[in-house]
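The passage that follows is intended for readers who have already worked through the single-chain material. We present the inputs for a multi-component assembly, then the predicted structure in tokenized form, and finally a short commentary. You are encouraged to pause after the input and sketch how you expect the pieces to fit together before reading on.
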Amino acid sequence: MLDKPIIDKMDQIFVLLQHWLVSFLPVSLQPLAAVLLSVIVIVCLFPALFALTTVFERKGLGRIQNRLGPNRVGPFGFFQPIADGIKSLTKEDIVPASANAPVHFLAPIVLVVAVFMGFAVLPMGRNMVLVDMDAGLLFYFAMGASTEVSVFMAGWSSRNKYSLLGAMRAVAQMISYEVVLLLSSVAVVMISGTLSLPKIVEAQNQYTWDLPHWYIFTPWGLAGFVMYAIAATAETNRSPFDLPEGESELVAGYHTEYSGFKFALFFLGEYLAMFSISGLGATLFLGGWTAPFSFLTFIPSWIWFFSKLMLSIFVFIWMRGTLPRLRQDQLMNFAWKFVLPFTLLNLMVTALWRFMGEGWERWVVCSAILAVVWVFMGRIEMRSEHFGPRSYRYAE
Amino acid sequence: MTPLAAYLLVAALLFAIGLAGALVRRNAILVLIGIELMLNSANLNFIAFWRYGPHPEALTGMMFAIFSIAVAAAEAAVGLGLVIAIYRHAQTTDLDKMNRMKG
Amino acid sequence: MTPVFYIIAALTIAGGLAAVLLKNLVHAALAVTVAFGGLALLFLSLDAQFAGFAQILVYIGAVAILIVFAILLTRGSDLPQDGVFSHTWLIGLMIAAGVFSVLAWAVLRSVPALPHETAVPAVTVHDIGVALVGRYVLPLEILALLLTAATIGAVIVAMHEKDGAQ
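Having made your guess, compare it with the prediction:
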């Protein structure tokens, strides 16, 4: 074990570094400079992580599919994202002749800006949050809701039936699953009593024996986390919910008509959304930057946050390599007939948990209710459906 | 000019724009957009009065705005549902062409 | 008044004007989204964080999307042949101008009576939550009922009239 001051220094290294750099400036400029510095770090760090993740994803998928994946550029193909970046920057930027040029231009920018804003309230380590807002969680969801508009803008302005279909699918899917995402987070808010993300992490930063008080280790927290994970996968349009960009049906969904740098922005936005939604899931249910065992608290908090983030990215990649894509009606039925009712039930169980007070009874009662309903609803969903002749319904 | 007056003027202008949109445009959806703008400008008034009022800790204006946001969402859903139903029936959303009481 | 206020106010007014004036309905819907966003920023500049974020969540995340869906379902993205303004546009414009002049006159007349810069109210989200389930619990319950009724009503109204459909 190291001694305490060094541990603290390592834990706060970025905060101290920021203070040190800012201290060279006059006092009046310091608050602004501190924020600016953090923004620059976030804007550089997550795209770098994005580059790294694309290699891992391609290599991981390659491994799952029994092939090699990228292995030409640099050692083991790890410089592939640099080559890809240069390629997308030098490609011709094609705008379709009948496209609605201003909207077509604005869509990727709106997407990336809205996604970046979400990082502002995520605590990435002890004292490492850009703005500790009183309504941080609400801010995050407000920014998440804004991405839907950009997806619609991209699909509509391209004047392409595949783009429009992809955008409509994406928007319908995002709205359906955003309800679940919000409601599963409300359970956490009910217990912790705050919308501020650093305070939610602080509430989980206690240990009984060596084990942490993460919300995932409670019946309602586990159920909420599973629902959150499903909704997060759908919200970021990842497989098995990647219908909006189903290649076999829609070419590439709402970004079919994008090329070059604008396409790279969409790609970036998608992965950034994945990072931020994983970070939020880790913050809400997995204790954010807290250590999984009390004897591991000497490892800096930011290492824990990013390990949890990368772990969930790994699960995302794993699912993509494993699960087949759903059909549109399956996707919607799943959202409205299984996930949403179960999340609502979880809210009631959370209230029950809150009012039963300390003791072992609430563990038994809450787990029993959730388990019984889970099995029961699963049975109903699994019934073999009888499919009649196909019927088509149009809007008008 | 005090800040409150500036906010009230902005709200009044937005209300007038929304009213003009609701009265002047032919498309039913645009009329709904105008109504949304008017509701929003009323919200701005509530929040401004809450902020500069004598008792902000009573939260009255803020609550009114929050409730009005929720009610406006319901209003938009029902209103747009009506527009779609009318479009199915009459194949148009042009309000000038919907001038018959009989369907 | 700070320059930030003027920028946000100009953005909001421009969004509103564009929404009312633009020919293409989808452009109008996107313009009104800008106006909604500007209003949310105005709420934030009034230290009403909760209302501002709720505004973004509800208006940009839900109402704007509803509007564009309705536009696409009613073929609103094709430009109409015979003008976008009603026959009675002059009367409508005059009424709107009259309403604005009366409101502006009232505001400008009352400027001396209006309070100046006051202290930022120390209201947290916690206070809002306590007020919602305390003093305002009855409106909250009624609102829940209204939203349920509106959801069911919207589904029934927009459903197919054909017999035998779900």
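Commentary: The mean pLDDT of chain B is 85. The two ends of chain B are 53 Å apart (CA to CA). How closely did your sketch match?
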